[in-house]
Amino acid sequence: MENKILDTKGVTAAYGESQILWGIDLNVASAKITTIMGRNGVGKTTLLKTIIGLIKNPEGTIQYNGEDISKLPPHKRAKLGIGYVPQGREIIPKLTVYENLKLGLESTTETTIPEEEIYELFPILKDFRKRLGGNLSGGQQQQLAIARAITGRPKLLLLDEPTEGIQPSISQEIAKILLRLKEEKNIATLLVEQKIDFAKGITDYYYFMNRGKVVAQSKASEISIEEINSYNSI
Ligand SMILES: Nc1ncnc2c1ncn2[C@@H]1O[C@H](COP(=O)(O)OP(=O)(O)OP(=O)(O)O)[C@@H](O)[C@H]1O
Ligand SMILES: [Mg+2]
Fold first, then answer.
1. Residue predicted with more confidence, 182 or 58
2. What spacing in Å lies between the alpha carbon of 208 and ligand 1's midpoint?
3. Which of 69, 106, 111, 161 has the greatest CB tally within 10 Å of its CB?
């Protein structure tokens, strides 16, 4: 593979006695979109949380730019350039759009929000910067969650089901943004997604998970929609 920004080997994770991940080997190439697919409950979110450090991995290594980060706390991983957009977005409803963006500064040594850059990508956030996060639509909150991660100046973005509960027209806008982040800012994305219509337009490389394991992987150019559907219906 060309330049790897992330490389996990044999990663496991558990909630108490219940083991969820069973030795995950995964590579993410720099400035590419890598998509993890798989049904509900197979461990996709657990994997992203393990990569950002919210869940400990008892076994295996997580290399980011060649450095093993698997013992670092989440804020240190974030400061190295890993942005995380959680499933369900986790916008703070009582804070304004601008205040939500400011939270992204906790993930960087920079001290200012890159406002021009963000409002250029998400014009709606400029108009709404004084509105409360809780008053935004689901699609707008998703845009805000991505913008908050960008405030942390990531080189790798972990993005968990950004289209969940969002209108198709906004999903298309989000797809365009992800392509721009890749092409204009060289940001690598590790996307968790169940909607093939969204994933197929932007993905460079696929992983398919089932029951806490990677069961298949392929370059996007070498796999058909039928094969993708078959892995997703295991
Ligand atoms: N905090 C938790 N404590 C105990 N078990 C959990 C916890 N979070 C998730 N699980 C369990 O771990 C397994 C994997 O969950 P996970 O959220 O990683 O799946 P997922 O692939 O992201 O699913 P979805 O597509 O529904 O988001 C599931 O069986 C789930 O019930
Ligand atoms: Mg999930």
1. 182
2. 16
3. 161
Would you say 200 and 220 are in contact if contact means Cβ atoms under 8 Å apart?
A: yes
Whether the CB-CB separation of 35 and 203 falls below 8 Å is answered with yes
CB 13 within 8 A of CB 55: yes
Contacts of residue 144, defined as CB under 8 A and 6 or more positions apart, other chains included, come to 89, 91, 97, 100, 101, 122, 125, 133, 136
Cβ neighbours of residue 120 under 8 Å, at least 6 residues apart?
A: none
Is the Cβ–Cβ distance between 77 and 52 less than 8 Å? yes
Beta carbon of 50 within 6 Å of any ligand 1 atom: no
| Nearest Cα residue to 167 out of 198, 196, 193, 188 | 198
pLDDT at 233 over 90: no
User: Is a pLDDT exceeding 90 seen at residue 148?
Assistant: yes
Q: What is the mean pLDDT of the chain?
A: 96
Q: What angle do CA 221, 155, 198 make, to 5 degrees?
A: 40
Q: For each of the domains in the chain, give its residue range(s) and CATH number, in order of start.
A: 4-232 (3.40.50.300)
d(CA 22, CA 213): 6
> Best substitution site from 12, 37, 44, 193 to test ligand 1's pocket, by max atoms within 8 Å of Cβ?
44
Q: Average pLDDT of 104-130?
A: 96
In this predicted structure, the answer to whether residue 70 has a pLDDT above a threshold of 90 is: yes
